[in-house]
Design a protein that fits this description.
Strand content: 25-35%
Largest sheet: 8 strands, mixed
Helix content: 25-40%
CATH topology of the domain at 1-9 and 40-144: Dihydrofolate Reductase, subunit A
Distance between the termini: 40 Å
Radius of gyration: 17 Å
Order of helices and strands: EEHEHHEEHEHEEEE
GO biological process, one term: riboflavin biosynthetic process
Protein name: Dihydrofolate reductase family protein
CATH architecture of the domain at 1-9 and 40-144: 3-Layer(aba) Sandwich
GO molecular function, one term: 5-amino-6-(5-phosphoribosylamino)uracil reductase activity
CATH superfamily of the domain at 1-9 and 40-144: Dihydrofolate Reductase, subunit A
Structural class: alpha/beta
Pfam families: RibD_C
Organism: Streptomyces tendae
Shape: globular
CATH class of the domain at 1-9 and 40-144: Alpha Beta
Number of strands: 10
Length: about 200
């Protein structure tokens, strides 16, 4: 049976990106980058918006405000291009142009449930906030990993990650610090029917 990992990189205040900030907020270090290259083989799950953004990068579209990719960003996109990717969308058209990408129009929750039961490798989300939220609500997420970068983007942050989430209890299974400043925390999540003191009025 496959495991499903929801995997986010965030600012300290829970944003997925920030206007005017480069990838990794420009704060990645050698330990973190080395760890990225050590990750096991994975099949990535994403929605249409993430696919459009990341496939654009793979095709050479430079992020807004930059003249060119930084080496770290280019390496990350190259690794994603080589990995297997499943894209859930009713708006994209086949054939998908990004290498190793499969388009699925069926319900994402039921498709991932079937992938988990019939597969043996690791499934991991990338971006795709609404997809992650749906998979978590459905109880399909085995591990929830967040890598927090040491910056608060209160004025420029975009894509608040946890808006619309249910209450979730988290059991820590791993934690690590990279380069003396980047914090990884990994949990087993359990969606709660209600908070400990009962259902709010």
């Amino acid at each position: 049976m496959s495991e499903l990992l929801v995997d986010f990189i965030t600012s300290l205040d829970g944003y997925a990106s920030g206007e005017g900030w480069p990838g990794f907020w420009g704060l990645e270090g050698p330990e973190y980058l080395a760890w990225l290259t050590e990750q096991p083989e994975v099949t990535y799950l994403m929605g249409a918006n993430t696919y459009r953004l990341m496939s654009g990068f793979a095709a050479g579209q430079v992020p807004s405000g930059q003249d060119e990719f930084r080496p770290e960003e280019e390496s990350s996109v190259d690794e994603l291009s080589q990995a297997s990717k499943v894209v859930f969308s009713s708006s994209l058209e086949e054939p998908l142009t990004w290498a190793n990408s499969t388009l699925v129009r069926d319900d994402a929750v039921e498709t991932v449930r079937a992938m988990k039961s019939s597969g043996s490798g690791l499934l991991s989300t990338i971006g795709s906030l609404s997809l992650c939220r749906s998979l978590l609500r459905a109880g399909l997420v085995d591990r929830f990993r967040v890598v927090m970068f040491p910056v608060i983007t209160g004025a420029t942050g975009q894509e608040r990650i946890y808006d619309g989430y249910p209450d979730v209890a988290l059991e820590m299974v791993e934690h690590r610090t990279f380069d003396g400043r980047i914090q990884l925390v990994e949990y087993k999540p359990r969606v709660l029917d209600h908070p400990p003191l009962g259902v709010p009025a």
